[in-house]
Amino acid sequence: MAGHLEIRFPEDQSEGTEAVMSKWLKAPGEAVTAHEPIAEIETDKVVVEVAAPADGTMGEICVKEGEPANPGDLLCTLITGTTGPAALIPRVNEDGRAKLSPAVRNRLLKYEIDAALVTGSGKNGRITVQDVETFIKQAHGNAETMAPEIGIREPFPQKIIPESETPAVNGSLTPISTPAVPATIPVDSGLHSEKIPHDNMRKRIAQNMVTSLMQTAPHVTSVFEADLTAVMRHRATHKAEFEKRGTPLTLTAYFVVASVAAIRKVPQVNSRWHDDHLEIFGDINIGIGTALGEKGLIVPVLHQAEQKNLKGIAAGLADLTGRARASKLSPADVRGGTFTISNHGVSGSLIATPIIINQPQSAILGVGKIEKRVKVKEVDGEDVICIRPTCYVSLTIDHRVLDGYQTNAFLTELVQTLENWPA
After folding, report:
1. Active site (annotated) includes residue 344
2. Fewer CB atoms inside 10 Å of the end CB: C or N, the chain?
3. In the chain, where are the structural domains located?
4. Which helix (H) or strand (E) covers residue 279, if one does?
5. Marked catalytic residue, from 140, 234, 238, 399
6. Quick check: do 3-148 and 200-419 share a fold?
7. For the domain 200-419, what is the CATH code?
8. What is the CATH number assigned to the segment(s) 3-148?
9. Quick one: average pLDDT of 304-330?
10. Is 0.70 topped by the overall pTM?
11. What count of other Cβ atoms lies within 10 Å of the Cβ of residue 349?
C-alpha cells in the first residue's frame, strides 16, 4: 500500500544566512532508493545533499531550483510502497526517449538549445544537467558559429548617440557644439560577451565582504616580515616522516601553531564584538581560507587547534582542505571559527591588504609568498649579508576590538615562534 513521506530541509543542516535549492537530482515520477541523494542545497559555504529516507518514487517538488530553502521547509514528497514510477507520470516520450527533468528543461530553454542535439547519458537516453553543461562547453569552443543558436555569446547592446545631439532633461534632443562620447562600445568593435549568472556562494561572498568592510568593522592592517629559516629546516628534516604516515607537512601547519601561540599571548584576537561587551573564546578554532578555483573561496575550520600538536594540525588540515576541494565538507566543518588564516601567498602575492575579516571574528592573518631575500644579520657583533627565506605576515583587525599595541604584540609573538622553531 502506497504512502507519502514529507522530506524537509533538516534543522541542523543550514550554515550561513541563506540557503538555495541548487539542483534536483531526481524528477517527479522517478524511482529512488533509501539514502540516495535526491537534491543539492547550496549555502554561501557548503553544498548539502538531501537523501531519500526510504525506497519509493519522487512525488511533488515543493521548492524549485533557485528558490530559497529554510530549515524545516517542505522540499518534496516521496511516495513509498511503490516499485516503479508513478502511474500518472510517464518517464519516456512516445519515441522511447526519457522525459526531461525540470532542471534540464530550464537550461535548454535558457540557452535556446534543441534537446535533439544533446546526447543523453542517463537511463533510456535521459538528458542530464551535466549533459547540457557539457554540450554548452563544447559549443563554446566554436562560439562564432554556435552563438546565434544556443545563446552562449551575444554582442553588447549597442546604442550610438549622434555627435550633434544629446538628451535634454525633459527628454527632447538638444543640439551641442562638441562631439558626444559614445554611450557604449561601437557597433563594429567585434567584441562579444558571455553572461555567467552568480551562484549562491559568489553572491554570499560578495555580500559578506561588503558587510564586513563597509558596514560592520573598521579595518586596520599591520605587516611584519618573518624569517622562515628555522621552519624550512625543520620541515625538510621531518617531511618524509610525515608523508610515511600519510600526512603532508605543509607550511600552513606551522602558521597555525604560531597563531595559537600568538593568540595565547593576546587573547583579544580570538574574540567577538558585541555592543555591550567583548566575548573572548576559550577554544581556538582556526579557519583556513581555501580557494575553489573559479567557484570562489571556502573557509573550513580546524576546531580546538590549541589542543593539537604539529602532527595533529597537519593531519587536520590535510583532511579539511582535501574535502573542501572535493565538495565533501559538512556544515559542521565550516561552523564555529574564531580566527582565520588567509594564505594568499600561494597564488603569488607578497602583501594583500586589507584582507577582509570573516565576520563575526575580530582579526584575520595574511601570509604572503615565501621567497629568498637578502638580509643583514648581526653575527658575533658584526653585520653579515645573508640570504633567507622570508615572507610578509599581516594582521587585519577590527579596530573596535584591537588597537595597534595588541596587533603588534600578536605579530611579534607569531614571528618569534616561527623564527625560533626548534630543530
Report:
1. no
2. N
3. 3-148, 200-419
4. strand 278-280
5. 399
6. no
7. 3.30.559.10
8. 2.40.50.100
9. 93
10. no
11. 14
